[in-house]
Amino acid sequence: MINTVIETNNFKWIDVVLPSREELQQLAKTYAIHLTSIQDCLQPNHLPKYEKIGDIFFIIARGYDEKARLNASNVLDLTRKLAIFWGSNFLITVHRVELNYLTEILQKWQTNALDSPTQFQILCDLLQAISISYEVPLDTAEGMLDEIENKIFMRKIKGFNLSFQEIYLLRRKISVYQRMLHLALEVLAKLNTVSEKHTPLLQNIKDDTHRLMFIAEQLSENVNHLLNLHVSLTSNRTNEVMRVLTVFSVFFMPITFIVGVYGMNFRYLPELEMQYGYFYVWLIMLGITATLFIWFKRKGFL
User: Fold this and answer.
1) CA 218, CA 178: separation in Å to the nearest integer?
2) What domains does the chain contain, in order, with CATH numbers?
């Protein structure tokens, strides 16, 4: 669907939602857009980039998808692509689904009817909204990280269950956000060379993107630290279980030895004829157990 959302004396903003190949080809023919750029529009998993072909500028950006599934962990599931073309007298945005931030920008300029925006002003609004879209998932990831930390150190509390998959999923998500923000910074760096007069507009976007990039990097370091900590604590708990089993086996080894001796099928065993031999053996076994317990206690093994 092709809509002309803003039209001034200087340029026209055309918004295209879920276009067919024929519609894109018609736009390419009308505005002299190169065929390779149209092909990039049709690829849903294309990463952010910036390029210039002739007098036409082309940007692919990816913002966070608010409707992403909880178990989403890759670029295609966590983000939505927005393709942007602009030339001397037009701005074209292409996307597959309705984007809330794009609607808000449209309403902003339609409300300020007295202001006549340029293509670059609208472009900057779009790029800033895309960068800011990662603020919510990063805040959510930070909350999940605190919850995971509580689960690691409060494992014995009822209701606290933690798996490696949960930490790994969060790590994958943060990695996607970090990668998208890094690519967004590369696009902004290339845009800065278009015209020096646009530097102030781009600087605000860069500041927001750098801030979110810093948060993503910190979260990535923290989740890696917690993953290593979880592995260490799990290994430590395994070692603790093995230590307890080893201590118990040491208690039973001498007792088992005594039982084995008196379980031999020899005809003559002196103690078998003793009146209180059975009780003497029990006293010996209890004495060995008590001695081992006291010794382990003093050594700090228990």
Assistant:
1) 10
2) 2-236 (3.30.460.20), 241-299 (1.20.58.340)
